[in-house]
Amino acid sequence: MEASVIQPSFPVPKESSYFRDNPPPKPLDSHTKLAKVFVSYHLHSDRGVVLVTSGGTTVPLENQTVRFIDNFSAGTRGATSAEYFLEAGYAVIFLHRQFSLLPYSRHYSHSTNCFLDFMTEGQNGEVVVNPGYQQKMLGVLRKYNAARRENKLLILPFTTVTEYLWELREIATLMRPLGPKALFYLAAAVSDFFLPKDRISEHKIQSSENKEPMANGSSDAKTSGNAPPGQGKQLKIDLDPVPKFLKSLVDGWAPEGMIVSFKLETDPSLLVSKAQQALEKYSHHLVIGNLLSTRKYEVVFVAPGKEEHWIRVPVHRRIKSVTGARPDIKAMKDGQTTEQEWLRGE
Ligand SMILES: CC(C)(COP(=O)(O)O)[C@@H](O)C(=O)NCCC(=O)N[C@@H](CSSC[C@H](N)C(=O)O)C(=O)O
Which of 102, 263, 272, 297 to mutate to test the pocket of ligand 1 (most atoms within 8 A of CB)? Predict the structure, then answer.
């Protein structure tokens, strides 16, 4: 199937119509109750609370979702930053894409750095952490247990962009009494487009000729036209733009909070200007710009009235996330590779 996205011809839906037409997620009530108790506890402890959002949002193509459009994010930025906020004394609400990386457990995930690789069977059949990892793992475990013991970390999941926006609005509104002690650190990779409820197929979109009629007669995500012989039908998807919620966050949901948002680009020539545009458009306190290819090693801070400020991890301290390889400084010195080529090779 070929997919081609038709640029939306609809005006951006206003926030109220979006939340009217796209029902709240089922867990919202329970999440809201947990967040309310959490915020109240830290409000009375006079402690700052950070809402860290992390991971990518999905746009389902069917109600009984088989296919969806995803925004790239492993959750590393959000999970790592949450740990630093906790160490700085903040309480953290970690609103994350379900199954993406979490604070502390991110060090020993199921895939990279698989936790089973650090364990062996002891003499009495007990599970033992290999001596070489005891110190580091103990440090992570102590911080994790302290965050839980002191009730300083609340972890809430989302999956779709609609779930994310409902959760963000509810939690931001609950944080309003914190005033300037509320901080929003928006590292989640949020969809700009979505498929409205009234135009989504109930069942799996069929790719063959004998496709089921669309559940409600409409068929925005539909197969039509013939692909080259021997292939299935083409899939054409007509998406609507998601409301510009970053503005609402400042104007309505949490007017006194401090807001840090992220701008993700792939074209270096666009990054700073797009981050500056976002800063002016949304009146945030800081926009952190990053490129997909170098996001682990460099970011640019764009703040009102200040020159752009780059922060870079020195080349010799960089490790490839997948292979764990360290940079080939000699090859770079010999001109056999450049830093950018090395970075892109990860
Ligand atoms: C996702 C990453 C790159 C981290 O990666 P992992 O460590 O692998 O998790 C993060 O640093 C980031 O840029 N996050 C923000 C990405 C993003 O979607 N930014 C939006 C702004 S938020 S979506 C804003 C909405 N459309 C509106 O205009 O209101 C953008 O660049 O446009």
Answer: 263
pLDDT tens, residue by residue, 68-119:
999 999 999 999 999 999 999 999 999 999 999 999 999 987 777 788 888 9
For 222-248, give one letter per residue: b (16+ CB within 10 A) or e: bbeeeeeeeeebbbbbbbbebbebbeb
Residues 6+ apart with CB under 8 A from 270: none
Q: What is the pLDDT of residues 108-158, one digit of tens each?
A: 877 777 888 889 999 999 999 999 999 999 999 999 999 999 999 999 999
Strand ranges for the chain from DSSP E: 3-6, 49-54, 58-60, 68-70, 91-97, 119-121, 127-129, 153-158, 182-186, 193-194, 222-226, 233-238, 240-241, 258-265, 286-291, 298-302, 309-312
The Cα-based distances of 195 to 7, 16, 51, 186, 289 in angstroms read 13, 17, 27, 23, 28
For ligand 1, atom 22: residue with the closest CA: 190
